[in-house]
Amino acid sequence: MLKDTIAAISTPLGEGGISVIRVSGDDAVPLVERVFRSKTKLSAAQTHTVHYGYIVEPATSERLEEVLVTIMKAPRSFTMEDVVEVSCHGGIVSVKKVLDLLLQQGIRLAEPGEFTKRAFLNGRIDLTQAEAVIDLIRAKSDRAFKVALKQVEGKLSSQIKLLRHQLVELMAHVEVNIDYPEHDVEEMTNAFIRNKCDTVMAEIERLLHTAQQGKILREGIETAIVGRPNVGKSSLLNELAQENRAIVTDIPGTTRDVIEEFVNVGGIPLKLLDTAGIRETTDIVEQIGVERSKTALAEADLILLVLNSSEELQLDELALMQQLAKRQAIVILNKIDLERRIDVETVYHYFAPERVVELSLLEGKGIADLEKAISGIFFEGKLEASDITYVSNVRHIALLKQAKQSLVDALEANEQYIPIDMIQIDIRAAWEQLGEIIGDSVGESLIDQIFTQFCLGK
Ligand SMILES: Nc1nc2c(ncn2[C@@H]2O[C@H](COP(=O)(O)OP(=O)(O)OP(=O)(O)O)[C@@H](O)[C@H]2O)c(=O)[nH]1
Ligand SMILES: [Mg+2]
């Protein structure tokens, strides 16, 4: 890794209160000092202090910007190198001018993610923590943010390390048996291998189990709103999106196409799909719309079936309920402000009470119940438990699966009394695969691939 000094704008480009340029490297302080004028000399300043002054053109001493400069000396900084942060007035022109001037002093423009990459290469964070920094930036909901934050803190890493520790113990035990077979009873070693592999495998399975939730937190639950025309599907989309995204009229068949909107319901990100009302129709455009509704319904992770509680159940609705009884679905009895004509008994015949929600979108009633029902389905109320680690990264999931397979192989070999040094190979493979998750044994290209996903300045 080159130890040169790098800089980038670390705040979003655009108008804002302030913009921050981050500089990191051995020469960060002297290079920034060349263009900074203030009462105290930057090179004489204490670490973790803030200095008011001006960025000046060194040749002419012309003042370019009024700034605050923060210095954080190695190793107590994000990158573990000397870091200087220059806070300028927000605005594209001002911040670019300052950055240009810094680059003219011999500082190199940082690549995307290079600051975080340095934090990793300098040993401040491991790979799962670095990857979580991306998730933190991209988090679309409170819950996704919390999960990413846990990972940044090293929660997943410490669990992986614990598993690897157990495998090391196991390998040591087996090693003794290979080197001094007379000191050990083969039977006992076989039992020991079985026990340890089982324990580690159970833990890997638990982590994999959380993967589905982790993915949802990152990408959103694909949620289709379906039902007959005019029951209030588009009204529901608008209510959850808190804007008039879809056209709402009292004419049945208003929505013809699938409308997508990303919303956040009780901290859970949903990719909502409003669809055309499902019914038999001769209108060709509407027919295409209905086909699209059916596709959305087939592919969704969650289905919100909207029924009009002021009308009797229709045959298509009975068919939909039958079809949805075994899926992840919530039934919404809408329009409860009107007189009830729906046969609720039939609805409850297909769906458990916690899957049925009564709403009036006109009066804005029952939305909180809907939120509860949705989080109930996906998190069984468990997400708040602070000790849960969610595995959400595809790379981690793939490696956990590989490690699990290696242990399955080891167990099988163990059952067949295959020579113990062969079993050792599988155990070592599992240990290495787990190591790859935290970046103990990863190649240069993978590291580059991970860090280029970052935005500039991070
Ligand atoms: N009284 C009452 N009317 C409602 C309620 N929710 C929606 N509506 C009305 O029902 C009509 C249809 O609403 P939409 O949201 O367009 O229904 P939709 O299911 O999207 O209809 P299509 O797009 O035609 O399939 C509109 O006139 C809404 O104002 C409610 O809770 N109570
Ligand atoms: Mg509609």
UniProtKB/TrEMBL annotation:
K(+) binds at N230, T249, I251, T254. Its main location: cytoplasm. Residues 220-379 form the TrmE-type G domain. The keyword Calcium does not apply. InterPro entries: G_TrmE (IPR031168), GTP-bd (IPR006073), GTP-bd_TrmE_N (IPR018948), GTPase_MnmE (IPR004520), MnmE_dom2 (IPR027368), MnmE_helical (IPR025867), P-loop_NTPase (IPR027417), Small_GTP-bd (IPR005225). Gene3D superfamilies: P-loop containing nucleotide triphosphate hydrolases (3.40.50.300), Probable tRNA modification gtpase trme, domain 1 (3.30.1360.120), tRNA modification GTPase MnmE domain 2 (1.20.120.430). NCBIfam families: mnmE_trmE_thdF, PRK05291.1-3, small_GTP. HAMAP family: GTPase_MnmE. This is tRNA modification GTPase MnmE. The lineage of its organism: Bacteria, Bacillati, Bacillota, Bacilli, Bacillales. The gene is mnmE.
